[in-house]
Amino acid sequence: MLMVRIVMLAALAGGASVFAFAPFGIFPLAFASLAVLAGSLQRVPRARGGFVVGFAWGFGAFLAGVSWLYVALHRYGGMPMPLAGFAIALFCAYLALFPALVGGLFVRWRRGGPFRQAALFAGLWVGAEVLRGWLFTGFPWLAIGYSQTPPSPLAGFAPLIGVYGVGGLLAFAAALAAVAPWRRLRGAAAAGLAIVGLGVAGFGLAQVAWTRPVGEPVEVALIQTNIEQGLKWRPERLADWLQTNVRLAREHAADLVVLPETTLPLLADRLPEGYLDELARDVRAAGGNLVLGVFLRDAQGGIYNAALSIGASPSQTYAKRHLVPFGEYSPPLFGWFYDLVDIPMSDQTRGAPDQAPMRLGEQRVAVNVCYEDLFGRELIRSLPEATLMLNISNLAWYGDSFAQPQHLQIARMRALETGRPMLRSTNTGMTAVVRPDGSVSDVLPPFTQGALRVPVQGYAGLTPYARWGDRAAMLLALVAAGVGVAGAPRQPAGSLKTVSG
C-alpha cells in the first residue's frame, strides 16, 4: 500500500507540473513538483521502484501537458475517438520513460549527502531531457526549464546554459530541498543558502545585456489570418483564402510584413498567374518585404514547407529542415499510420541543414517554421549573422488548447538564449513579439483576425549559449552526475529521511 501511495503522489505531482507552464505560469510549482518526485524516490529502496515512480510522474505530467495532440488526431485528422485516445496515452507513456530512467538510475546510484544526491538527480534529469530532445528526431516540448521564463529568477541563466541547463538547476534545487536535513541547523543553512543563492545569481545575470541593438528599428506587421483548420483545405474555399491574404497584406503594408505558416494551402506553382505579385504589390511599393508560408516544389518533385520572401529585396526562400514525425513525414515502418488519419501535405522533404538568414533591407531575418523553434541548438546556427528571429506557425491543428500559450513560452526561451527578438506570425495564435530578455512586448488575442504592427529593433552579438549551444549544460550535467556517484558509499534508502526526522 505504501508503494501505491508513493506512485499516486508522484503521478499527481507530475500532473500538477502543467500549471507551472503557460498559460498559468505558476513557475514555483515546477520546483515543488520535482521536489515531490525526488522526495518520493527517497522512500523507494530499489531501482525498479524508482523507475515506476519516475514513470508515474512523467505519465501524469505529459498526459496533462500534451493531451491537446488528441485534437489534431481526432477532430482534424479523422482518427476514431478511442484510437486517438489510445495513441495519445501510448505517446505519453513513451515520454514518461525518460523521467522513469531518471528515477531508476537515481535510486540505483544515489550515495553520500544531500548535495551529492541533488547533483546526481540534476545530472540525470538534464541527460534524460537532452535524450528526449534528440531521440527519434526529438520531442523536447515541456522540458522543465521552459516553466522558468521571466519572472522566474532562473531565467537569467538561459543565455548561458539554455533551457536544459535551467532545468538542471531547477532539478538540483528541488532535489536538495527534498533530501536536505532541515532539522539540522548546519545542513538546513547550507541547503537554504544554495537554493537562495541560485535565485540571487539568476536575478543578477538577468541584468546583463549579452547582445546590443544594431541599426534602425523596422516597422513590422505580423498577420494573424485566423482561418479555421477544418475549412482551410476545402477546394471550394480556396479563392476566399487567397483573397483574405491579399486583403490583409494590403491593409498592413510595412517594412516587414509576415503571413503565417502554410498561409496559402496549395503548392506555389499552382497559384493563379500573377498572384504573388498582387499579394506583395503594396508592400513592395512602400519599399518593404513580405514573408509568407507556402509549399514549394523542387525540380525532383520534393515538397517543402517553406517561407518565401517577395518585395523590395531579392526573393529568398527558407525550407523547413526539422519535420514533425507523423505530421510532415512518415518514419520507417509507420506508413500504416496514414491509413488512419487524413493529414494534407504529409509527405514532405527536409530543407538543407544550414540556410542563411534572409537579407531583407537592413535586417538579417532567421526564419524557423512552427515546431522548429523547440530546438535551440539548431536555431543558433544562424548566429551571429541574424539580427531578428522569425517563427511562422499554424497551431489551428490543436484548437483552443494549451498548445498556443506553451508554444509562445518556448519562443520566449529562444529569445533569451539567442539575445534576439523573436517575432511570431501564426494562423490562430499566439502572434507576438518577444524581446531579447524573454518578455512579451505585444501579442494578438488568439482566434482573431488582424495584424500586430510594432517597431522592432534588430540585435547583434552572441550570448554564451549561442557560442556553446547545449554542450555547456551537458558538460555540467556530466560533472554533476559524476560528483553524485563518486567518492562516497551508497546512501541506503530512507536514511536521509530518518536523519531529517
TrEMBL record:
Residues 223-458 form the CN hydrolase domain. Its main location: membrane. Keywords: Acyltransferase, Cell inner membrane, Cell membrane, Hydrolase, Membrane, Transferase, Transmembrane, Transmembrane helix. It is a multi-pass membrane protein. It is an enzyme of class 2 (transferase). It is found in: Cell inner membrane; Cell membrane. GO terms for biological process: lipoprotein biosynthetic process. One of its GO terms (molecular function) is N-acyltransferase activity. Signal peptide: none annotated. Pfam families: CN_hydrolase, LNT_N. Pathway: Protein modification; lipoprotein biosynthesis (N-acyl transfer). The chain crosses the membrane at residues 6-39, 51-71, 83-107, 119-144, 156-180, 187-210. Belongs to the CN hydrolase family. Apolipoprotein N-acyltransferase subfamily. This is Apolipoprotein N-acyltransferase.
